[in-house]
Each structure stands twice: as structure tokens, then as C-alpha cells.
């Protein structure tokens, strides 16, 4: 055992800088890999809002076609916890790096296949069935991505900069969202028939190129030293998922609630609101361009809040973000209801900025709840379950509330109430900023 301990890699936590060749490579991999994964995953959300209801569900009434399209979107989010559990298990047993490479390959293949999928007019009901299948594969892949990308940075970062290091995986989401939105927006400049015929496919096919570039970076990254030490310890380990649910149910619940807070912002302002604003008369291309600008705002606030959480703590920043989110609920809904590009632009920039403020501390907040031996599994399940609840079903729930009540007031009350519950959960959680990752139990 002494020999194992002596030869195991040492953690850089004793250092004080992220500006070393190894850490720069790790942070770049975390950011670029997540950006490509979320380009693929969020590209589908844009297509679900403006394309799929017309090419895969054209036989339905417009309102129900939108509902069905968002239902396929939700299927991918529903698969994310499954991906989190599968990749988390093997990430805790075999290593973070191997799972990151596998998840990226799965995502790239599924996204490219969506770009080649025949429409319902060509193959009937088989088309939406295949669409759902590929969306589920996307969900499983992205379910395994975030936990590994976040942990491989957090577990190798200096202790006082873990929050910022972990946020690089989160920064990839708005970067991927901006890229996917801009590419889809460019395609909407085509004549409508050409856009619906082939233009929407181009962003999906571009995924093959992006995945190849990201893999080149990711293959050069070193494995997490904390995992390698655990591997060298040669101890008997239980199934990670069993241990998470049996020993850490409270931590799992509280981290899910923290994730739901920021994911409801994503589901409302970047998916449901796109469809709502376009249906009310806003120019489709203008709406997508506004969403791309908002992603940049989210990236900026993610960086700021990640820095702040290393100084003031994860909980304080998260609670401040939730208070801002609750205050913004009804102004955002009013702006979306204007049915103009300007109204949507203000709403989505405000919503995404608040989402970024919640997003910055989230990775560290979640990871610091679980010990190394189950950290990939616990973090992935918490994050992906919250994404399923918050972003996956929010657009469909919002569309259902509006269809049933025609009232944004009811929708706003439901949204604000969900945020309050999330805030209470965060207040009940333990602050992790000063915890030692190697000794968490």
C-alpha cells in the first residue's frame, strides 16, 4: 500500500495557480468539449422550436405540433439522468477521461444522424420515432459529459479556485448555445421552403467536424489525480449509484433543487419563449440572433459568479441569483408577450444573465457534496435530474399551462413558486468552499 501511495499522482490542490501548462490544457478541454456537446444538444432545442413541428409533426394542429415537438425535446432531457448514472458508474470505476471521450463520440454520431433523417412526408411515423431514438442517445451522451468535464478540472485545481475551474464545463454551455443559435439563424435566411427542406440539416451535419476538433484536445488531457489515488488504494467499492442513493440522499435532493433553479430559466427563455415570441409575430431570425447575444451575456455572468463563489461561498451566490430570478419572472413574461424581437431580446438577455449567475457556482456546489469514490455518479445524477425537471419539461409544461388557461399570470406564479422551493433547498445545504475534496464523507 505504501508503494501505491508513493507512486500515485499528486493533486495540484497545494498550488495556487491555474496558469500552468497542465491546467490550461485541462481547462481548455473542459470548455471546448462541453461547448461542442452543448452545441449538439441545444441545437436540437432550436430545431424543436422552429423546425420539427413543421417537418415531423405537420399533420397536427399548430399548437399540438409544437407540444409534440417539445415532447421529443423532453425525451432527450429524460435520458440525461440515465446517461449520468451509466457514465457516472464507469467514471467512478474506470476513470473520468475515458468516459469523456466516449460521450463525445456518441453525441457526434447521434447529431449527425439527425441531420440525415428523412421527414415524416418521406417515411411516415417512422421519422418521429427515429427522431426520438436519436434524441435519447443525445441525452445519454450529454448526461455523461458534464460530470466528467467538470470533475477533471475541479479535482486538479487549487483548493481556493475550484469554483472557477469547475465553471469551465458550465461555460461551454452558453458558448455551444451561441454557436448553435448563430448557425441555425444563418440557415433561416434561406427561403422558407429551402430552410425546411435542407437548410436546417446543415448545423447538425457540422457536428461531425466540431467533434473531431474537440477530440484532438481531449485526448491530451491527464486523468484526475484524485481518481488515480483512489484506484491505487485497491479498496473494495460498492456500486456507486447504490451508495449515492443509500448514503447521500439528502445531498442528492438539495443539489437537484439547486440545478432546477437555473435550468427553469433555460427552459423558459431559450426554448419556450422562442416559440412563443415567433408565434406572436416576432421575426424568427431576429429572435435567434437575440438568443445568441444572450448566450454571451450568460457566459459573462457565469465567469463573474464563479469567481465570486470562490471568495464568498457557493450558497450566497446561488441564493442571490434565485432572488434576482424571482424578481424577473413577470417582467420576462410581459416582454415575451409583446411579440417583438426587441421585447424578446431584453427578456432573453435578462433571463440568461441571471441563469449564468446561478450557473457559475453550480458545478462546485454539487461536486463538493460527494466523496471522490462516488463524485462522478452523484454529481452527474444531480445535475442531469435537475436538467430534466428544469429545462426538459419546462417548455412543455409552459405550453400546456398557456394552452389550458391562456394566462401568463398562472404560468408566472408556478415559475416563481418553483424558484422559492429551490432557494429553500440551497439554504439547507452545507457550504463546500473550504472542504477538503479528499476527505469528504
From TrEMBL:
InterPro entries: MFS (IPR011701), MFS_dom (IPR020846), MFS_trans_sf (IPR036259), Sugar_transporter_CS (IPR005829). The chain crosses the membrane at residues 26-52, 64-87, 99-130, 136-154, 166-190, 202-219, 252-274, 286-305, 317-336, 342-369, 381-404, 410-429. Keywords: Cell membrane, Membrane, Transmembrane, Transmembrane helix, Transport. It comes from the Bacteria. It is a multi-pass membrane protein. Pfam families: MFS_1 (PF07690). Residues 26-433 form the Major facilitator superfamily (MFS) profile domain. It is found in: Cell membrane. Its main location: membrane. The keyword Cytoplasm does not apply. The keyword Iron-sulfur does not apply. This is MFS transporter. It comes from Sinomonas flava.
